[in-house]
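seq as requested:
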Amino acid sequence: FERVWCEPKPLQPGGVPIWVSGRLNKNVLDRLVRYADGWIPWGEWAGDVVHGIEVIREAFNAAGREWGGFEVRGALRATTRDDGSLDLDATMADVPAQVEAGITDFTAYLQLPDDRADAHAQLSELVAAFRATVGRS
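struct tokens:
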């Protein structure tokens, strides 16, 4: 039995975007600079994404890679009121600063109602508030 290694060529125009997740150690930074279209923060970096973006930008600059088009995942943590309803103003409060820092994609963390229609209504409100906050229709 002989193992044959292929070298896929994902970095090509129109190719599948490559997202790398991880803590920003030397190996992950190397992968991000060489191959990645985006970063999903992990571990302690998930709580300090803005600093992580600075570290990655420095690595890009040192390698001569352009930052344009690179994407970063951040967290949209839903804030609820005492009655359990979603507080959209509080939930969106950090979003402009995160976008300004370079976060391009958000994963929403929230507890949805059991009723499908109520969940749909809550998600519709959240999406509308997010779009209004980031200036997208």
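Residues 43 and 105 are 18 Å apart (CA to CA).
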